[in-house]
TrEMBL record:
<keyword id="KW-1133">Transmembrane helix</keyword>
<feature type="transmembrane region" description="Helical">
    <location>
        <begin position="66"/>
        <end position="86"/>
    </location>
</feature>
<protein>
    <submittedName>
        <fullName>Phage excisionase # putative</fullName>
    </submittedName>
</protein>
<keyword id="KW-0812">Transmembrane</keyword>
<dbReference type="Pfam" id="PF10935">
    <property type="entry name" value="DUF2637"/>
</dbReference>
<keyword id="KW-0472">Membrane</keyword>
<feature type="transmembrane region" description="Helical">
    <location>
        <begin position="124"/>
        <end position="143"/>
    </location>
</feature>
<dbReference type="Pfam" id="PF13384">
    <property type="entry name" value="HTH_23"/>
</dbReference>
<feature type="transmembrane region" description="Helical">
    <location>
        <begin position="27"/>
        <end position="46"/>
    </location>
</feature>
<dbReference type="InterPro" id="IPR009057">
    <property type="entry name" value="Homeodomain-like_sf"/>
</dbReference>
<dbReference type="InterPro" id="IPR021235">
    <property type="entry name" value="DUF2637"/>
</dbReference>
<feature type="transmembrane region" description="Helical">
    <location>
        <begin position="98"/>
        <end position="118"/>
    </location>
</feature>
Length: 244
């Protein structure tokens, strides 16, 4: 069957293929990463000082109080590194990393709110103090998630830029479809029934045994009547594959 190759309408080749690969330019990624890192550092510092003060109020010596915010907010940082490192691994490992990240952020938010309620000025309502105090840990969590997404796009863009030939090859897809000419292909129309020489000879012998004339056998098998005569008169001779 003959066919024509046509491009897959859902796939583009050449320069259009690059637009199908998700990714962000390196300049945008670098600028965004710089901003998220600065915001994360600011949020971490505010949360660190609040948790350190809360540790002192809870009776931990000032010389050791700085360890408490490192433990709480350090879980957020370590879980973030794990999320990035495990993003291509098993789902169970990723879920555990996100669970640690969420738990660390939850403890940090609760501790910041507690510090605000305890240490806030009496003129400030407790609700307002709690809302202000919960912003730094939430920003830290949000910037962490945004950093992960930016790193994913950075990896995709790097792979695309490093191997443009592979992108070109994977983007071009040809789908073979039958030629639509309104009629059956000529190769099929002209295809005769073919048999091997031994099969044709055996068929001729069987028809002759049934009383069919040599002319009818020749017409049935598409060979000359004299060929049928030779096959029947010399049974042990190999059959001739062409009509005379």
């Amino acid at each position: 069957m003959t066919g024509t190759a046509r491009p897959d309408p859902h796939v583009r080749s050449g320069a259009g293929a690059a637009r199908l690969v998700p990714g962000v330019s390196r300049l945008v990624i670098g600028t965004s990463l710089s901003g998220t890192i600065l915001l994360a550092l600011g949020a971490f510092w505010l949360s660190f000082t609040a948790l350190r003060d809360l540790a002192v109020l809870a009776g931990i010596p000032e010389t050791q109080a700085w360890v408490w915010p490192l433990i709480v907010d350090g879980v957020i940082l370590e879980a973030t590194i794990s999320v990035v490192a495990l993003r291509n691994q098993a789902a169970s490992a990723r879920r555990f990393a996100w669970l640690l990240l969420s738990a660390g952020a939850g403890v940090s938010v609760a501790a910041n709110i507690t510090h605000a309620v305890v240490a806030a000025d009496a003129r400030v309502p407790a609700l307002i103090a709690a809302l202000v105090a919960c912003i730094p840990p939430l920003v830290l969590l949000a910037m962490t998630h945004l950093t992960v997404e930016l790193l994913r796009n950075a990896d995709t863009t790097s792979e695309r830029d490093a191997d443009p030939a592979a992108t070109e090859q994977t983007a071009v897809a040809l789908v073979a479809t039958p030629a639509r000419t309104g009629r059956a292909p000529a190769a099929i129309e002209r295809a005769p029934r073919t048999r091997t020489g031994s099969d044709t000879r055996a068929r001729a012998v069987a028809l002759a045994a049934d009383g069919v004339s040599q002319r009818q056998i020749a017409a049935e098998l598409g060979v000359h009547p004299t060929t049928i005569g030779r096959w029947l008169s010399v049974p042990d001779q190999p059959a001739e594959g062409e009509a005379r």
